[in-house]
Amino acid sequence: AQSVSQHNHHVILSEAASLELGCNYSYGGTVNLFWYVQYPGQHLQLLLKYFSGDPLVKGIKGFEAEFIKSKFSFNLRKPSVQWSDTAEYFCAVIYTGRRALTFGSGTRLQVQP
Amino acid sequence: DGGITQSPKYLFRKEGQNVTLSCEQNLNHDAMYWYRQDPGQGLRLIYYSQIVNDFQKGDIAEGYSVSREKKESFPLTVTSAQKNPTAFYLCASRISGGDTDTQYFGPGTRLTVL
């Protein structure tokens, strides 16, 4: 079955620390990849997406992600986190032929001032 | 002010009652989706609709029903057959053509069964 794995369920960092959240998807042919963020009490928002081209994509608020096809991975990174990055982060994939997102279980990021 | 609205924000239901969650969008998007969010499980697809008067079951459709009579509206009914309905429900929409795979989400409805 097509699936998405996020291995870090809860991450606690201090401000200015670097962030990398893992995301792996199961093989399923061509995929489009997304990272969404859910700040406390707010809508789920799109952080960044990858459809094709340069595998290093930049999103909002200084986030970036790298698509590594050979590893079926799409890890999210930020060089220096801020307290305001405290949120839940979801990796999501659309597999060819399926028109809805498959989500990972989410990673709760807590940034301590 | 364009976007996706969901109402109500909080909903309480007694066991055995059906309840309908509203989702409206004024983005002129063709496709609409319902997801369920549970702690530690991410979002799971309940139903989706690519066009008016057509919809497909998602991964966890049992105990739910939908309709798509208008492009702007995609209500979800949680029936008494849904064994564990307490959850956070998110509606999303997506435009067809161009950037076809990006979905935009509403604020959600938190359903609690008493």
List the helices and strands and how they pair.
The complex is a heterodimer of chains A (113) and B (114).
Chain A: E1 4-5, E2 10-14, E3 19-21, E4 24-25, E5 31-38, E6 44-50, E7 56-58, E8 64-68, E9 73-78, E10 87-95, E11 102-103, E12 107-112
Parallel strand pairs in A: 2-12
Antiparallel strand pairs in A: 1-4, 3-9, 5-6, 5-10, 7-8, 8-9, 10-11, 10-12
Chain B: E1 4-7, E2 10-13, E3 19-25, E4 31-38, E5 42-51, E6 54-57, E7 64-66, E8 76-78, E9 87-94, E10 104-105, E11 109-113
Parallel strand pairs in B: 2-11
Antiparallel strand pairs in B: 1-3, 3-8, 4-5, 4-9, 5-6, 7-8, 9-10, 9-11
Gross morphology of chain B is globular
Profile the largest sheet of chain B: 7 strands, mixed
Please state the average pLDDT score of chain B: 91
How many H/I helical runs of chain A?
0
Gap from first CA to last CA of chain A: 41 Å
Oligomer: heterodimer
Summarize the structure in words:
The complex is a heterodimer of chains A (113) and B (114). With 113 residues, chain A is an all-beta fold. Chain A has no helices and 12 strands. Chain A has strands at 4-5, 10-14, 19-21, 24-25, 31-38, 44-50, 56-58, 64-68, 73-78, 87-95, 102-103, 107-112. In chain A, the strands form 3 sheets. In chain A, strands 2, 5, 6, 10, 11 and 12 form a 6-stranded mixed beta sheet that branches. A 4-stranded antiparallel beta sheet of chain A has the order 3-9-8-7, with no helix packed on it. Chain A is globular, with a radius of gyration of 13 Å. The model of chain A has no long low-confidence stretch (mean pLDDT 93). Chain B has 114 residues and is mostly beta strands. Helix content of chain B is 0%, strand content 51%. In chain B, 36% of the residues are buried. In chain B, strands 2, 4, 5, 6, 9, 10 and 11 form a 7-stranded mixed beta sheet that branches. In chain B, strands 1-3-8-7 form a 4-stranded antiparallel beta sheet, with no helix packed on it. The radius of gyration of chain B is 13 Å and the shape is globular. Chain A binds chain B through residues 4, 6, 9, 32, 34, 36, 42-46, 49, 51, 90, 92, 94, 99-106, and chain B through 31, 33, 35, 40-45, 48, 50, 58, 90, 94, 101-108.
